[in-house]
Amino acid sequence: MNKYALRQFSPRTQRHPTAIDLFSGAGGISLGLVNAGFDVLLCSDIDESCAKTHERNLPKVPFLRRDIEKLSAREIMNAAKIRPGELDLLIGGPPCQGFSIIGQRELWDPRNGLFKRFVAIAREMKPKVLVIENVSGLATLNKGAVLREIGEACAEAGYAVDCAELLAAQYGVPQMRWRMFFIGWRIDLGKRGGFPMPTHGRRGIGDLVPNRTLRAEDVDGFVTIKEAIGDLTPIEAGESTTRYTRHPRSAFQIAMREGAPESLANHYAPRLSQQNMERLRVLKPGEDWRSLPCELLPAGMQRALRKDHTRRYRRMKWDGIARSIITRFRDPKSGEYIHPEQHRTISIREAARIQSFPDWFVFEGTISQQYDQVGNAVPPLLARAVGIEIRKMLGAVGTAKRQAVKSRYRIPDSLAIAAAE
Questions:
Q1: Which listed residue (96, 154, 163, 294) is catalytic?
Q2: Is 130 part of any domain?
Q3: Number of domains in the chain
């Protein structure tokens, strides 16, 4: 079996652990969990376009389109037909814009408090394990106050929680995307951990961190940009196509096209301004704004230091590893999103591939909504890896404490002790 393949549903031959996915977005976590052997009982998100995408791709999984601030634990349990303590896994990725280093990192941002609502729901539902996914930037916000606040909230709800930064590329996702995962086990179960060991590359969890220069051996074994998107049909900026014109060559490409119809969905690249097109024509693979003539730079960048904006207007390299996909990947000045050969930024489908969404997974809504869904998604292959490890621990008899993983950030052990008391 192709290790990158993702299907709508896995065969059910016996009882499988159950999960509920809150803040589910386009469905990256749910797709990963289904392929990890979970029965996803319910998903919920406030976004209408996400609801349409979910209905298109995961039609047998119930979906509640609701504001989580108005969604009660009782309503969730009724919809999923479960009682307190019966659910195996409650998982969610609260909106991360307020925590991200890309944004303004405002502590007062109302989105930053949604994890409290998530934990409050967990407190009533009493799942065996809860998982919170977010950006790594929250760990340093207000000198670590938010990190401790999450630990305290989980402890008060009766969970011993640990955290670690996981790099998506180490789990088969063709992308240097770091995400913070919090895994909390209900105290009475006596379990801790659940972070999956990397399946790609030579390094362990925590050995590679953001904003550091990586050596060739550090990324050896990761899925490259060419392996991820090299088979997709060439298009011009402002164009789209529904035709495949090339055969898949890598294991990743074969997996992404498995189960897909003959037509290619979401392969649209945005129209760019004449100025941007002139900039792109100058750039060679691996080059960025520093290779542009001064007169082609935006006015605000003409006086920038050479060490600044190091990935703006950067053209990808076929043998490179893609950077983290964000919602603004249509804009060449946002980062390394220029196609390795073609004079355009990557298409929605190419970005979806880099997020590890298979081609049969179609994003609904307007073009802008599709960009948001892809950029905000959790890579399904990363979610699958986490799900597989948690499923193993759920099936373990008695207590199970996995070896602590390397991490720059930790939840104080005193909070776990307080939770037990």
A1: 96
A2: yes
A3: 1
